[in-house]
Structures are given as structure tokens and as C-alpha cells.
Amino acid sequence: MARFWSLLEKLVCVVALIGLAASTNTAAAEDAAGLGARIFAANCARCHGRTAKGDGPDLVKLQSAVSPDDWTDKQSNQELTDSFIVAMITKGGKANGKSRIMPAFGNKLNMQQVQDLLAFIRSLPK
């Protein structure tokens, strides 16, 4: 009987560790998206809009015929690969065959910030 309790105790510990690891990964993803939200507000919202719908005030001033994607739209968000979004952020629109209005942030944001921004963009569709 003592062996049973010992095995049960070990099993409970393993399950607890798995749960802790899963919650840590979820928390890390949430933290990355939260950091990305602040980066978005500081660098992207003027064109992409405060709510990331592609309706920022600076594009109205530029009278741009191009409007950014609505990142809250699940289909629009899923159509682009992570690597393409990272390239757009780091190299800008012109370097990726898109609008020259989209500036490059590769010299302003480090790769961790770019990844946090990507996590935020991917978290937007509900």
C-alpha cells in the first residue's frame, strides 16, 4: 500500500509540473502580446489605428489610397505568414513589394520587440 501512495504522490507531482509548464508558456505568450501592444501603440497605431483595424489618423493626412490590413479580422490576420509580417516590420513595405508608405522599423526595433509585436498582431482576432 505504501508503494501505491508513493507512486500516486509522484504522479501528482508530474501532473503539477506539466500544468505549471503549460501555464508558464501561456503567461509568456500573454506577456509577449502585452509588450507588443505597447510597441504597437508607440510605433504603429498612427497608421494602423488604435484598435489595429487599419484606420489610423496619419493615413487620412497622407490621403493614401492604400489602407493597412485589419489585424482584428481573423481571415486577414491568418493569410500572412509570420515571416512576411516580420519582413514588413523590419524592412518596410517597399522592400516587400507593398506600399512605400509602410516604413521599415529594423533599425528602431530589436528582434525581440519585433517578435513581441508579432505576438500582439496574432492575438488580435477573437
Describe this structure in words.
With 126 residues, the protein is an all-alpha fold. The protein has one domain (32-123): Cytochrome Bc1 Complex, Chain D, domain 2, CATH 1.10.760. The chain is 64% helix and 0% strand. It is built from six helices and no strands. The protein has helices at 2-43, 45-48, 57-62, 74-79, 82-91, 111-123. Helix 1 (2-43) packs across helix 6. The protein is elongated. The termini are far apart.
Protein topology:
Elements: H1 2-43, H2 45-48, H3 57-62, H4 74-79, H5 82-91, H6 111-123
Helix pairs in contact: 1-6
**CATH class division:** Mainly Alpha
Please name the fourth-level CATH homologous superfamily: Cytochrome c-like domain
Radius of gyration: 21 Å
CATH fold title: Cytochrome Bc1 Complex, Chain D, domain 2
Unreliable runs: 11-17, 19-24
| Domain module count | 1
Helical segment count: 6
